[in-house]
Amino acid sequence: MTVLVDGPVKQELVAVGLHNANVVFAGKNVLLTGGHAEFVAEEPGVYTFAPGEIAVTTSDYPLKSVPKNENPADSTTTVV
User: Fold this and answer.
1) How many other CB atoms are found less than 10 A from the CB of residue 2?
2) Per its UniProt entry, which superkingdom is the organism in (predicted)?
């Protein structure tokens, strides 16, 4: 999964360590937990973080989910 950072410095991060602990049936949602991404803000300002592209590898084939529209920011932080 990518995390889109917007603010004084724009960046696309890749979250690592995500996993799905439950069986997923065809046509149902995959719940990914346990991941993280790291961003070091070197410029002061307001930064927002939004989900980007999601890729899931199954035992049969890889799946890729690309948002049709830009996702709204999930969180904001201010760096001084």
Assistant:
1) 16
2) Bacteria
CB 42 within 8 A of CB 50: no
Residue keyed to tokens 């069986």: 23
Between β-strands 62-65 and 54-57, what pairing exists: parallel, antiparallel or unpaired?
A: antiparallel
Tell me the pLDDT of the chain averaged across its residues: 88
pLDDT digits (tens, 9 = 90+) for 12-43: 999 999 888 888 887 888 788 889 999 999 99
Cβ neighbors of 79 (< 8 A, separation 6 or more) are 41, 43, 44, 45, 46, 47
Residues 59, 21, 49, 53, Cα dihedral to 10°: 10
How many residues are listed for the chain in this entry?
80
pLDDT beyond 90 at 7: yes
